[in-house]
Amino acid sequence: MGYPNATRVNSLLSQICVERGWCLPPNEEERVRRAIPNGVDAVADTIIRAELQIDPIMCDTETRRWLTAKVGDWLFEPRGRGASSDLPL
User: Fold this and answer.
1) pLDDT score of 27
2) Which of 35, 39, 61, 82 could form a disulfide with 46 if both were Cys (CB 3.0 to 4.6 A apart)?
């Protein structure tokens, strides 16, 4: 399942799909969007629950660091990939 990279959320989901094979179904995209106001960790937790089907506290440190870096870069960093892409959230 690919995502059209029309938004930063789509671009994030596309990148994690390509890099880790974590290809969330389209209905999970809305859950990711709803988590954005709560910050990087909330978005990462949403993705972990959807893809790994585990409580986020059970996610290994390396995987969590990788994911939070991607989430931050696409959605939260003022000089990150998302901000420089000029795509809407």
Assistant:
1) 84
2) 35
